[in-house]
Design brief:
This protein has about 400 residues and is mainly β. It has three helices and 29 strands. The chain folds into two domains: about 290 residues, TolB, C-terminal domain (Neuraminidase), CATH 2.120.10; about 100 residues, Rossmann fold, CATH 3.40.50.10070. The strands form seven sheets. The protein has a five-stranded mixed β-sheet with strand order 2-1-3-4-5, with helices on one face. A four-stranded antiparallel β-sheet has the order 8-7-6-29, with no helix packed on it. Helix 2 packs parallel to helix 3. The two termini are about 25 Å apart.
């Protein structure tokens, strides 16, 4: 779906297509998993049982554990419900070191059972692996369930899906702020592509770009103060940055014979990755630049290289068309090492977005009949569908919170 962003730009004075035959195939092997035993964690029927199922699913999906017994780590404790309150005790014992590495209690409203399970799962990952898990994350996506392309948001496992916009039009290209407080996206609700900002706490929405021509949303800076965007108000589509407090607009690219699209920030906010067809009309590639100045080409294989997303691990995930099929790849902009992420099959994988663990990528998978959101594991676990039956789903974006 985010490929649409580039081709909207292409329609504004840019045409043609050139081909490249280079391809890259990478064989992935599943990562070694740490054994984890959940058999000593008990839960009564009803909502506590839902807690345990969600917890087990989260720990299995994260990719770091083999759920078995006996195991290196043993999880014990219980989930019980009293009235409208859930009480959870959770201990994790390291059998190798013969020490307890986690001992926590939790109390939460029963209505928040899934959120609590996600939190406990992330705490278990933190206690055993030394870094935060991904279960508490949220995913934005575009869905056409209502007959219009609207924004939706769900939990990291695809559950708790809810509609976010009701524009009765076309919404594309959602981007989270780093803290999950803001969402930027492009909407055609007024008949033209304009950029909106949603405050996820209040639900308030503000139009931040409705200049003449095309207005396409890009990433929000890591500090939440600036938003990247692609505007055609001065001619061809170029990358701009807008200060959200003052409204000050700064042009970052000036390519009269090319069009840009899909700008995103590096994790530290010092660099920007974006798409341009500067090397040849209709032949988009990924570039990296500082806050302005000449961009540095980082991709060369493939017929189209679009939809970059810069992960916390320093790698840029992107979509590339090779041998007639779109796939997900990742590239290190420092070393230029490249790897294939999506399976080698005759279906399209597009719109990659990094999960917060730097291991997983959420993306769109389309087979010509249906478009779904999938979770890909860069360390070898099988792809996992996150969206329900009914409708088509596109353009996911991941928030760690």
């Amino acid at each position: 779906m985010k490929n649409t962003i580039f081709w909207i730009s292409v329609l504004i004075g840019i045409a043609g297509l050139s081909a490249a035959q280079d391809d890259l195939h990478v064989k992935k092997t599943a990562a070694a998993k740490t054994s984890l035993d959940l058999s000593a964690f008990s839960a009564s029927a009803g909502t506590p049982a839902m807690f345990r199922r969600t917890l087990e699913s989260d720990l299995d999906r994260c990719g770091w554990f083999l759920l078995t017994r006996p195991a290196t780590f043993a999880v014990s404790g219980s989930c019980e419900q009293t009235g409208d309150t859930l009480s959870v005790r959770c201990q994790v014992f390291d059998a190798v070191k013969s020490v307890s590495c986690m001992n926590k209690t939790y109390s939460e409203r029963a209505a928040e059972v899934r959120r609590l399970a996600h939190k406990v799962a992330d705490d278990i990952v933190q206690a055993t692996k030394g870094f935060k898990g991904i279960a508490s994350g949220r995913i934005l996506m575009v869905g056409n369930r209502t007959g219009h392309k609207e924004l939706y948001v769900c939990d990291s496992d695809g559950g708790n899906l809810r509609q976010l916009t009701s524009d009765n039009s076309i919404s594309i290209a959602p981007y989270w702020s780093a803290n999950g407080a803001l969402v930027a996206y492009t909407s055609f609700k007024r008949g033209f592509p304009d950029i909106y900002l949603i405050d996820m706490k209040t639900g308030n929405r503000t139009c931040i770009a409705n200049y003449p021509g095309t207005n396409l949303a890009g990433g929000i800076s890591p500090d939440g103060r600036e938003a990247l965007m692609v505007l055609s108000k001065d001619g061809n589509p170029d990358v701009y940055v807008k200060d959200l407090a003052s409204g000050r607009l700064t042009r970052l690219t000036n390519t009269p014979r090319a069009g840009e699209a899909s700008p995103v920030w590096s994790p530290d906010g010092s660099q920007i990755a974006y798409v341009s067809d500067l090397e040849g009309a209709g032949h988009p590639q990924i570039y990296v630049m500082g806050r302005g100045g000449a961009g540095r080409l980082i991709t060369s294989r493939g017929r189209e290289n679009v939809s970059p997303d810069w992960g916390a691990n320093g790698w840029i995930a992107f979509c590339s068309k090779r041998q007639g099929v779109y796939g997900i790849y990742m590239i290190n902009p420092g070393t230029m090492e490249e790897r294939q992420v999506s399976p080698s099959e005759n279906v399209n994988y597009e719109d990659p977005a990094w999960a917060s663990d730097g291991r997983h990528v959420v993306c769109t998978r389309g087979d010509g009949r249906r478009s779904s959101i999938y979770l890909l594991d860069t360390m070898g676990d099988p792809p996992l569908c996150l969206t329900p039956d009914g409708g088509n789903w596109y353009s996911p974006a991941w928030s760690a919170q």
